[in-house]
Structure formats: structure tokens, C-alpha cells
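Q: Got a minute? One more chain.
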Amino acid sequence: MSSLRTLFRAALVAVPFCNAELGTVQDLGTPSGVQVHAEFANAPKDLRDVVFSYDFSKVDLEYSWQYGAAFWFGNAREDVAYIAIQPYPTYIRASFYSFTPGTTTRFPRDLDENGNWKPGCIMSADGVAGVSCHNFLDKSDHGGLFNLSVTNTGPNTWSGKFIDTITGKELPIGEWTLPHSRGIRPGVDYFLEALRGAKEPACAGIPGTVTTFVRPYCSSSGESAPLEEPYAIGPCKKNVRFETRNVGSGREVEVQGGSKRASSMPAAANLQDPIPQIYPRASKWSKNSCSANDKPRGPQRSKQSKHPQEPQQPQRSQGPQRPQQPQNPQQPQQPQNPQQPQQPQNPQPQKQPSSQEEDSKATKQQNDVPWRTELQHRALCRGYNGDDEACLRGYKKCQQELSRNAVVGWYDLVTCNNRRPH
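A: Always. Here it is, folded:
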């Protein structure tokens, strides 16, 4: 059965993409890590709730790992969704994504009075169709059991929630509404993925980590799904060295990795959120999502400007040049009149910059600073008492400090920068 799924997965990856308005999850980046499948054998056709649990008691804090679970609402690749968490030193970042075109949300993300991003959702899943939601749980102690809950709260609406079982605190991650009323398919996938280190020579930068995947649970049916054998995923899967053992509640997975700290990290200026590479897998519901009349996509072209460049006009011929008149070296010069008063030279008025030049200068100055709104300006520099130069120096230091992290966003830079003046 395992070999059959592997062949089916490879076949799906090789199939050309269907014609689509937007890309699918397969167009995204390809982190490497470990994936574990679970199947609700006795569940109804579609699930209306599922809880994924992670034991972080042995987790060594790493920015570079994301722990999550993928689930499907249909047979097409864009029917995938996922929920995940990523630990940071003082908080845990939670994500809730749908890649289905036509997904909407009633919780748009916005800025608060201090210019910080409030938790919420945006109408995009990192450049492809869908919705992405995020929230943050302030927590420096990452040990213990954490639950990620996905629940059908309306006809087409789904909510994601992060639950700290130690404190009992529940954190809503987000909510989105699908363009259909289908439920979750009984086959789901845990994953843990390294978001950095894969660009090292021979994938040597994959760091180590350890966690326990607890059997997923469906409260409406009262069933938990057994976990199958874990397997490596991603372009560095041959270099992902891991051990797995059965524990009472599920499977513990320990990745040895090549090093704890890799030198090749994404830059801190890269503000995009990490997206796991969800690999299609075989199940009795899987079908080829491409219809018979779909034509394979051609080779991808390099990105071009939205506005095509106008063809250059051919240069006009200047025609034959006229011969220059020979200068007469013997032509007498006109005598200068020494008594002729010189005309006073009028000073040339200085040219005033045009409004277009002023706008260009203002735009250049705006691009030299990290903020784009006054709210963001106040949020980033609130502790510097109006000293923008000191604020920018602190901001650049924070970029350098955080550049080793896999995911650095505005929230992280604001938090780092405002610790400096105090």
C-alpha cells in the first residue's frame, strides 16, 4: 500500500497542471521534512471537525521548523488547506490557510492604534488563490501539549483554533468561508518542515528537531485515526535523517539534521509567510484534477512587466551630410574697441524643481525607510522620542539579528526594535 501511494504521488507530480486562473499549492516553495498520514477508517464521507495535537515537551526551540497538518475538501490540488504553528522565543505563531479559489473571510487583517498588525486574515495565500490567517500566542515556555482545532461553524465556514492544554487558553487563528459545502476528507497528513537549510550544499543545513504527532481526533464521530509510517518529503528528502518510535498517544519523530545552525538563511527583509509543500497522496477518493480538455501548461516564462514594452522605432536616416565650409585662416580679425564698455551680465535665475521632481524625491525618501504609513512609523519608532535616525539604526541591527530566522515579518521587527531604547 505504501509503495502504491508513492507511485501515485510521483505520477501526480509529473502530470502537467490544469489551466487555471491562479496557481495551486504545487506552485509554491518546497521545504523539506517529514510527513505522516492518518486515515479515519470508520468516519463518514466528510468530517466536520478534527483536532491535531503536538507534544512539544522535547522540542529544542528553533525558528526554522513549522509543525502542522494538511487536509483536503475535494479531489483537486487546490482543495488543500492546512493549520500549523511555529515557535519563537517569546511567542508561538499560528497559521490557518485555504488554497481554494473563491474562499472569503470576514476577519480582514488591519493595523491597531499603534501601527502593529492585528491578528486576522488576508485574501491571499502567499500569491495564490485562497485566504491566510495568523495569530500569536505570547508564550516563552513551549513545553507541553498543543492542539490545533479545525471546526465547521457554518454551512461553508471553517474556524481554526490554537489551544494550549497546559494553561487552557484558546486562541482563535482565523475563519474562512469556502465556495462549497463539502467537508474534510478522512485522509489527513501531519507534517514538520524545515523552512531553512535546504539551500546549503548537499542540503547539509537541515537542522534537527523532535516532536510527537498525536493521533488526530474527530469529536463528532468519537474516532481517532492511527498514524502510518512517517516518510521524508521535499527536495532534500534523501538528506533528512530521522528516527521514529511509537509512543502511547502517537508517533515521536526525531530529525537529526545536518546542523543546528545553518549559515544560509533567508534575509530578514523577506516578509512572506512560509507555506508547506503539501504532496498529493493516493486514496480511494483521489482523482486526476485535470479535465480531459485541459491542455498542459507550456514552459514557465520569466516574470515580465505587466505593461509590454513598446517596440523601438527605427532610427531615421540622416541623409548625406553637407561638406563643411573651409575656414579661411587669412581672414582678418575685427579689431576690438578697448573703450567699449562691457555689458553687465544678468545673473541667471536658478531653475526651480518641478512638481514631478519633488514627487520623485519624496518617493525616494519614502523608499529609504521601512515604514509605508504614519501608523507603521509610530509603531516602529515609538521608543525613540522622535529620533528617526536612531530608530533606523536599531531597525537595521534587528534585521541583522533576525536574519538567521526562517520567517521574519513586521511584527518581529517592531518587537525587536522597541526593546532597544528601554
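A: Residues 2-255 form a domain with the Jelly Rolls fold (CATH 2.60.120).
Q: Perfect, thanks.
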